[in-house]
Design brief:
The structure is a homodimer of 204-residue chains. By secondary structure, chain A is of the alpha/beta class. Chain A contains 7 helices and 6 strands. Chain A has 2 domains: 49 residues, RecR Domain 1 (Helicase, Ruva Protein, domain 3), CATH 1.10.8.420; 102 residues, 3-Layer(aba) Sandwich (Dna Topoisomerase Vi A Subunit, Chain: A, domain 2). Chain A is 37% helix and 12% strand. In chain A, α4 links the parallel β3 and β4. The longest helix of chain A has 17 residues. Chains A and B meet through α1, α2, α3, β2 and α4 of A and α1, α2, α3, β2 and α4 of B.
Chain lengths: 204, 204
């Protein structure tokens, strides 16, 4: 006997297609939806549709935005001589939260991962190079590209790849530091992080 | 500066309202939706709407169904003398998966939890009592009610509450066994489960 009626199974399947949602979570979410008032489901539906209708890639930095160029690229107060390269739009948010970075961004929408079939052509990197010269950047020469891809194998490979392409253009390329997270404990840190923390030590 | 444009923030908020989805997961899901082809989003939208349009509570057992009474309640092959009481529709699936239970179900849609403000009136219990007599059950008297609420404080309280109401009607009420999960290891079992496993020991 089929345990769920067809519409319920279908909704469970739709939730399962979302990243990080397994069968049990999908079931739970579907039953949550079943108990929601109809207006709430319509709010959800319209939010889903609206992003597809209104959100585009910023032609300058590839950020997801409802105005092109995005608010970062068109802001008169940001430092146009700095470009921070990140993998995903939500990585940009992590950098913004520091409130210390005031430059521009470039979003790759991924990282090099041969195992997942992501090669250089899948990254949104081509439009980074024209940005670096003054004539394409409101008259400001880019002096430094900060590569803030993740401290993972994929992120490191991507950082090295980006650096290899940018350095010949005479622009400084830097990589965010790796080491002990602030507030952590040496007792629980993994050996690779500890190794980085030792290698990147600095005089006090 | 607002990090996300309004439609993206709104979709993130909608995902955050779902149970078990925190801010980071909501971000990830929203960006996943942004990258989906429009048809896929429409499939999701129609699955969401369809459950709201087609799915109702079974008037007999409270199961979520697109036909009323549900396939269990209207099945001629199920044993109508047995009713298994569960908290949620997905708990029914766990019982069905055993393939050994052939009786009917009754879904409470919750468990007693004073801390979450769920009292007896919030449970869908009232329609259980008329089911127990033969005239309301296709001429078959219910002889046993199996209470398969979760082995938690709330589930136990609910089981005791249900039993206290049904026993005076002269119907046998049973509770599913608690003990060591099959395939587990005594080394890792918690003391409450171990205590139950000892208390419920049986001769071999």
């Amino acid at each position: 006997m089929l345990e769920y009626s067809e519409p319920v199974s279908r909704l469970i399947d739709e939730f399962k297609r979302l990243p990080g949602i397994g069968h049990k979570s999908a079931q739970r979410l579907a039953f949550h939806v079943l108990r929601l008032p109809e207006e709430r489901v319509e709010d959800f539906v319209s939010a889903l549709r609206e992003v597809k209708q209104k959100i585009v890639f910023c032609t300058v930095c590839n950020n997801l935005t409802d105005i092109d160029p995005c608010t970062f690229c068109s802001s008169p107060t940001r430092d146009r001589s700095l470009v921070c390269v990140v993998e995903e739009p939500y990585n940009l948010v992590a950098v913004e939260k520091t409130r210390s970075y005031k430059g521009l961004y470039h979003i790759l929408h991924g990282s090099l991962s041969p195992i997942r079939g992501v090669g250089p052509d899948e990254l949104m990197l081509a439009n980074l190079f024209p940005r670096l010269s003054a004539e394409n950047n409101d008259g400001v020469e880019v002096t430094e590209v900060i590569v803030a891809t993740n401290p993972t194998t994929e992120g490191e490979a991507t950082a090295n790849y980006v650096a290899r392409l940018i350095k010949p253009l005479g622009v400084k390329v830097t990589r965010i530091a790796m080491g002990m997270p602030v507030g952590s404990d040496l007792e629980f840190v993994d050996e690779v992080t500890m190794d980085k923390a030792l290698a990147n030590r600095h005089e006090i």
